[in-house]
Amino acid sequence: MPLALTDDHRDLADSVAAWARRAAPIEATRAQLDDLAAGKRPEAWDALVQQGLHAIHLPEEDGGAGAGLVELAVVTEQLGRALHPGPFLSTVLASAVVAAAPASAVRSAVLGRFAEGATGALSDGDGLTATSYDGSWVLDGETRPVLGLPGAELVVVRATTAAGEPVWCVLTPAAGEVVGEPATDLSRAVGRLVLDRRTVTTAELLPAPDAERAELATAALLAADAAGVARWFVDAVVAHVSTREQFGVPVGSFQAVQHKAALLLVKTEMIGAAAWDAARAGDDAPVQQCLAAAQVGLTALPAVVDVAAEAVLLFGGIGFTWEHDAHLYWRRAISLSAANGSESTWAARLGAVALEAERDFGFVADDALPELRAELATILDAALELPEDGVPASGWAPSRGGRRQEHLADARLVAPHYPEPWGRAAGPEEQAVIAQELARRALAQPSTVIGEWVLPTLLLHGTPAQQERFVDPTLRGEVFWCQLFSEPGAGSDLAGLSTRARKVDGGWVLSGQKVWNSMAAEADWGVCLARTDPDAPKHAGISYFLVDMRSAGVDVRPLRQATGLSEFNEVFLDDVFVPDECLVAEPGAGWRLAVTTLANERLSMGARLSHGSSDLVRTVLASGAHEASRDAVVEVLGRCVGREMALSALNLRSVLARIDGLDLGAEISVQKVCNAIAQRDNSRDLLRVLGRGALVAVPPTGKHTADPVIDHLGLPAVLVGGGTIEIQLNVIARRVLRLPR
Questions:
Q1: pLDDT at residue 297 above 80?
Q2: Over pLDDT 90: what percentage of the chain?
Q3: Cα 449 → chain centroid
Q4: What is 413-475 written as a DSSP string?
Q5: Domain Acyl-CoA oxidase/dehydrogenase middle, which positions (predicted)?
């Protein structure tokens, strides 16, 4: 899914993509490589200026279009996807930083020149010193390599005084002040600025730009270009492996190739989500901008290099040749990542900020839907007056019922997105407001746990009698559910299940074994898949039953895990009678219903981080239970928070896509894979800083454990539950990328 989410942004993206294909095809770029390296304007520059793409973000009073950072990011992504050559990126980086400066005559004059089509470059790193002399500033030193410097008409420069204070200016380089370098990205020029007693005039001195806004704009635009590069690789790889044949079949039909291609998409979606989150932070508070910029530097820009390297291998030998375009995009990826600085620096930066603040992924204003808020205030304030008197449950199930949950269920707030009479048919905006009002009062929204996967299936496919019998009691906390799907011989291949359902008078008799069943020991009811037609194709002969877990013949046996906890069970069904009214839909419809249940499971799991949470890193840091240095732990915190932020951005984009009417379908599997990888990598990073502290693993004493080692040992619960990473990659490859079978 590209950065553009709204109709207007998608139209803008389509328009820019079409223009880029016409104005600067890759063949034309190849023909200009020597000129581009020397800093000459590409043939398409004047046409780009006529389109106004270079000034879409600049204020109207300065000759721009008055749009924002998001619109510029949408444009940048599409130009990156087309490998658009020359100074576009370096110019908009420079002009965006100038636009972040306070109003002044210099700012207006410089922005006016950028709007007219002047090319630019941004040197905001170290290397230049500023010394006060005779009422002005004198600059000396040599910068690190600067993108777009050769040929730039305006160079936005930050120098540093002896006291460490920044001095900003906009220079027109003189002869000999720009030293060209052999650029990694062959479609763009790179050079160093060398200054010797260069005096800054009043007309060149720029009021210091807002530091957070400038940093954010730089990170967001680099990441947007990277998102475009990554999407080109995905498109090109899919086209190649779908047509390239070996052994008489397309190589894209091989599972190993499908998994690698699917992982490219997963990483690309994370890059795009991070870039989008940074772009949308343009009007946020400074600390929010700092978080978003650091996350891009840590998770998006390094990842595009990995995408490029993996994609080149999927092209085979042809991808390693000069004639193939892959190396041009690969070089662009390396260049973009390098332009944003060191990954470890950003990790430390994000970790330090994350100790004091967290990214706000809310998408509704605090005063949105005032009438709903007024209604909620009455309901929720009354809920606060009620005791939390639910009956404590064994295992890891929540407390059962209680007056507070009953009150919220009566107000249709346990599952407000459900249709009436159980919910409010609340859309994403209403749900967000409800969540805000609950959080303001420190009220937890009751969870039906497995019921969150089961009830949507009953609402879609159940009879009115089944809905009447089960939905409201579940929402009130009176009924707990478990899911009886997996079997010893049917895990990932769920349709290969062998539990049988034999028809008898008034119902069915179920026999078989289920395994890895959460909450089976606490559940009142279970949703069970059983084979009702052994002669039908395996997907067609399955039915969906509601099983009373207190029925004769149901034997639940807890499974003790490597953690010492028993969060899962195996369930034996020995001639268990299930009445006809507990068959959902018609016989043989079970697989269709199971897909609904599993989709809700994967959507739920895609939005939660139960292992490897950054909160565990904060706990370890606060307790001092780490062998690594504090700085090393802060860096790990940054990496963990970065993964969580990228995942949250991906989830928020999914919500907003639904608001705009987009059907994500199998793309939910992308979120599940991102979630699983984040939990795995976060947990492993935490073990690295514990050192010999991980020689000790405190046994769990309750439902959950905060011990990092036990937390790591519990990873299989999320890496397998809801479908393994590999199974999700199969889904992505076949249903999202449409690779051949």
A1: yes
A2: 79
A3: 24
A4: -SSTTSPTTTS----HHHHHHHHHHHHHTTPPPP--TTHHHHHHHHHHHS-HHHHHHHHHHHH
A5: 482-576
Dihedral angle sign, alpha carbons of residues 253, 258, 260, 264: positive
- Provide φ and ψ at 386, rounded to 5°: -90, 145
- Note whether 490 and 482 are within 8 A (CB): no
Catalytic positions: 601
Chain region(s) in the chain for CATH 2.40.110.10: 7-209, 481-599
CA distances from 291 to 297, 298, 359 (A): 10, 11, 6
pLDDT at 626 over 70: yes
C-alpha 688/C-alpha 627 separation (Å) is 9
pLDDT mean over 556-583: 94
Give the residue carrying structure tokens 């010193």: 129
> What are 525-552's pLDDT values in tens digits?
999 999 999 989 888 999 999 999 999 9
Question: Regarding the domain delimited by 7-209, which CATH topology (the fold level of the hierarchy) does it fall under?
Answer: Butyryl-CoA Dehydrogenase, subunit A; domain 2 (2.40.110)
Q: Which amino acid does the sequence have at 168?
A: W
pLDDT digits (tens, 9 = 90+) for 82-95: 999 999 999 999 99
Tokens of 32: 């200009």
Residues of each domain in the chain carrying CATH 1.20.140.10: 212-341, 603-732
On the CB side of 660, how many CA atoms lie within 13 Å of its CA? 15
Q: Which sign, positive or negative, has the C-alpha torsion 418, 419, 421, 426?
A: positive
Angle, in degrees to the nearest 10, between helices 69-81 and 88-99: 170
Pairing outcome for strands 120-123 and 154-160 = parallel
Mean pLDDT of 366-386: 95
